[in-house]
Amino acid sequence: MLRSISLALLISVAVSFSPSHNSPLKRDFGLKSAEAKDAPPVNIGWDSHSPISQIPDSLVRPGDGPEGNTPMRAKFEKMCREAQIKITEAIQEIDGEATFQEDCWTRATGGGGMSRVMSNGRVFEKAGVNLSVVYGSMPQEALQAATERGVDRAKGMAPGERVPFFACGLSSVMHPRNPMCPTMHFNYRYFETDGGVWWFGGGTDITPSYINEEDMAHFHGTYKKVCDNHDPTFYPKFKAWADRYFVISHRNETRGLGGIFFDDLNDRDPDTIFEFSKEALGSVVNAYGPIVEKHKDDPFTEKEKEWQQIRRGRYVEFNLVYDRGTVFGLKTGGRIESILMSLPLTSRWEYDHDPEEGSKEWEFLQACKYAREWI
Fold first, then answer.
1. Is 227 among the domain residues?
2. Torsion over CA of 226, 230, 233 and 237, rounded to 10 degrees?
3. What is the DSSP letter of 340?
4. Whole-number percent of the chain with pLDDT over 70
5. Is 166 domain-assigned?
6. Catalytic one of 21, 175, 185, 295
7. Cellular component per GO (predicted)?
C-alpha cells in the first residue's frame, strides 16, 4: 500500500523554479555571500510583504495604483472582509474543534491582505480564506494569466512594458477529512488596470471524491437561484464556463464536478455586477455547509480514503499548472503562503491507477471526463 505523500518537496520545487521578474535574492540558504549575490533573481516576494499585528480599517488608499473607481475598490474590499468573517465563523462551527489562525500583512508596493487558515480540525484537514488587496505593476504575462482576455489587453504594449493594476479578491479552499465530504473552492475578485479598464471575475466550484446526486443538485441549485436573481442566462453560461475552466488538460478530465465560473465581466454597470458577486459570495455557506454537515461522520473504508488522496493529487496538478490565481500570484511576487494555501496537507500519486469499470470511482471519473447537468 502506498502512503500519502507530503507536498513539502513538491511545493519547494515549484517555488524554486518560479519565473524571474528582477526581484533580488536576499536569502542565501547557506550560500557564501558572493554566491548569493550572483544567484539568479526569483519571483517569490520574500521581502515585499511585512507582517503586522492588526490590519488597517481599509487597505484601499486613494492615490495608490492606477487612476480608477476608488469607491468600488473600497466597497469590494468591505464586502470581502465581511464575507471572510462570516464564512470562517461558519466553518469553525461545523468543525467544532479547530479555529482559524489569522495572519495580516502589508505590501511594499501598496495594499496587503489577511489570511485565515485552519489545520488538523475534527472535520477539516485544512481550510483557508484569504483576503488580498494589491497595488503594483505586473509583467504582460501576468496580465495574460489574470484574465481570459489578457492576451488582447496586452496588444500594442512595448516588449517588457509593465501594466499598473489594482486587484482585490477573496479566495478559499476547504479540504475535509472524510472522503464523503467534498472539497470546495471559491474566488471572487475585482480588477482594474491602467487606462480605466475594469472587470469582475470569480465563481464557486465543488470537488467531491464520489458522486452524490442529491448533494450536487443542492450545490448547483443554490447557485442557479443566485444567477437567476440577476440574469437567467448566467447559470447555463457560467456552469459551462466552469466545466471548461477547471480542466486538467494533460489528463483530459475536470478536477471536480463544477459549479459556476466567470471572468472579464464588465458588460453592464459595475454596481450591478457587484450585487451579483456579493450574493454569489454570500451563498457559499448555504451551498456547501449542509453537504459537509450531512456527511462529516459517514463511515468510509481505507480504499475510499486512498481514492480521496488520489483525487487531491489531481487538485494539486490543476492548481500548480493551470489555475489563473496561482499563476498570477507567482508572476506578481505574491505572498507564497497565501498563494499555496489552496494545496491539501496530503495527496497521493499512484502509478498508472485505473479504477475498475463500473466501480464508484470509475463512475466519478466518467463524470470528470464528460460534463453532466445536475439540476
1. yes
2. -50
3. G
4. 82
5. yes
6. 185
7. cytoplasm
Give the CATH number for residue 148: 3.40.1500.10
Residue 326 lies in a domain: yes
**Selection from 243, 267, 263 nearest residue 255 by Cα:** 243
| Residue 191 located in a structural domain | yes
Which cell is 312 given?
Answer: 487531491
What would the grid cell of residue 159 be? 516588449
Q: What are phi and psi of 144, to 5 degrees?
A: -65, -30
| Alpha-helix residue ranges (DSSP H) falling in 27-158 | 33-38, 70-95, 140-146, 150-153
In this prediction, residue 142 carries a pLDDT of: 67
Domain that holds residue 132: 49-349+356-369
pLDDT for the residue 342: 82
Active site residue 21: no
What parts of the chain have a pLDDT lower than 70?
1-49, 142-157, 332-333
Residue type, 366: Q
Give the CA count within 13 Å in the CB-facing half-sphere of 122: 13
Q: How many domains does the chain have?
A: 1
What grid cell was written down for 101?
489562525
Count CB atoms within 10 A of the CB of residue 21: 19
Nearest CA among 196, 278, 195 for reference residue 230: 278
